[in-house]
Amino acid sequence: MKELIETIVKPLVDFPEDVQVNVEEESQRITYKLSVHKSDMGKVIGKQGRVAKAIRTVVYAAGSSQQKKIFLEIVE
Q1: How many domains does the chain have?
Q2: Which domain holds residue 69?
Q3: pLDDT of residue 64
Q4: Fewer beta carbons under 10 A from the terminal one: N or C of the chain?
Q5: E strands, the chain, where?
Q6: Cβ(8)–Cβ(24) under 8 Å?
Q7: Dihedrals phi, psi of 26, to nearest 5 degrees
Q8: What is the mean pLDDT of residues 29-44?
Q9: 75 Cβ neighbours under 8 A, 6+ residues apart
């Protein structure tokens, strides 16, 4: 899943080397924290959050086969 997020986000940003995905796993949920360069934040979020919503939709669909709930957070 981490590779999927990186594959989606890296072509969108100007600084692909700054893309980081951290994983926090708990008993009932897995949280992926996406971190990008400060100037790329707008590109990842998109107008009115459309790009972020699209990324989340793909990630949630790919993770639907797992027993745990999946969350994607975009952090600064």
Answers
A1: 1
A2: 2-75
A3: 85
A4: C
A5: 20-25, 29-35, 69-75
A6: no
A7: -120, -175
A8: 95
A9: 33, 34, 35
Residue 20: CB partners within 8 Å, gap ≥ 6? 34, 35, 36
pTM of the predicted protein model: 0.89
pLDDT number for residue 4: 94
| CA–CA separation, 26 and 40 (whole Å) | 29
Q: At what angle do helices 50-62 and 2-9 cross, to 10 degrees?
A: 150
State the pLDDT at residue 15.
95
Tokens of 53: 């919503």
CATH of the domain at 61: 3.30.300.20
Q: Which amino acid is at 57?
A: T
Closest CA to 52 of 41, 63, 37, 61: 41
